[in-house]
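Let us work through a complete example step by step.
Step 1: write down the sequence.
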Amino acid sequence: MGLFSFFSKDKKQVLDNGLEKSKTSFFSKLGHAIAGKSKVDDDVLDNLEEVLITSDVGVETTLRIIKRIEERVARDKFVSTSELNSILKEEIVALLQENGSVTDGTGEFAIPQGLNGPYVVLVVGVNGVGKTTTIGKLAYQYKKAGYKVVLGAADTFRAAAVDQLIEWGKRVDVPVIHQEMGSDPASVAFDTLQSALSTGAQVVLIDTAGRLHNKVGLMNELTKIKNVMKKIVPDAPHDVLLVLDGSTGQNAFEQAKQFTQATQVSSLAITKLDGTARGGVVIGISDQFKIPVKYVGLGEKMEDLQLFNREEFVDSLFS
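Step 2: predict the structure and record it as tokens.
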């Protein structure tokens, strides 16, 4: 079985198309970096460092990548510039592997085995990053995989957030548990899990408020939601998914920093990669925060939310 054989051509095409702007930008910069050079030397590495940083890979991650390539050049004595791209792919995949980035062996949406109750995902992130849309797309993918899904509209701070989730519920044909605007988010989460248990739902996706101006308030709210959920499903939530907008580049790093300080984030979804040349942010965030990237958003269609596979992602970005 080939390295990428478990991906359908359609999924691979979506990934290639979604990363087209990032890939075009990177290779344009890389072409200038190695112009007139036949081997990788200090000048090429200095230029490559600038290319990676300006591609939103991040300073710390860039320095780690450069160090790896320096060690390889020192070991192999001569590395041609024509080899640089394949070496970059190999070293970045190795870096992501060391950081525990998710690689799903089937390429399909599935829930963990052996759960005593439904699989509960608490979704966090600031307003505008595509959080509610990501929940809707996740609901679609899990339902398509054969699971019974229920959504919880615990972002009671904004009426628009509740309405948007209800609309997604209609589109995907899954129930949405909600209350009036201003209701206690923990109460919504409680009702959602009760509904899931009574109806035999296997996947629960709960939206939360996206405000970040008060980190202590956010922490307290999320802690309360978790504590209430544990009264019904003792090991919930099974995943705290942070949604980040990949098109914001370095701002996504700052959001990740703030949320990881406010709550225990266990996975990441990075959205809107199709509309930006900043696809390198996926590599940097995964490396810097040591939190696995679980999903990438590559377009507007419901099928355009994909499970993240490090080999496939890097292959599309640097091919």
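Step 3: interpret the result. The CA atoms of residues 269 and 295 lie 5 Å apart.
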